[in-house]
Write the structure tokens for this entry.
Amino acid sequence: MVGGTPAGAVNITMSGYSQPSWTWDGGSGTWLRSEGGTPAVVRSGARLAATNVVVLRVTLVDTGTRDPAGNPVPETVLTGSGEALVATGGKTVKGTWTKGAKPEVLKLTGTDGQPVSLAPGNTWVEMVPTNGSVTAG
């Protein structure tokens, strides 16, 4: 990624119950995920890590169905466009995501109108409701 703003963390609030965050680890060259302040780990105990973190601001719609506890089950609308934040290499860049109908790929564009490139490696996508929040710094 060319350019970007140096950042040590990306903090997300999806709801009162879901507050994931990503912290840059320069030693491994990855972003390390935490959930509610607790390091997120896989079954082996290793930290969840990603080379790239892509945050998409998305709209949720009511599906009319409920989970076993009686809570509404929303559906994510992933067509159209919305705000995006891409974190890679210890930097973040703000931009826009766009996606047409199902066969089309999702495109990330920076505020300068240029495509946003991801570093080789794994990418984690966080889909944050429009009423959630995203901060980087």
Remarks:
- The CA atoms of residues 63 and 74 lie 6 Å apart.
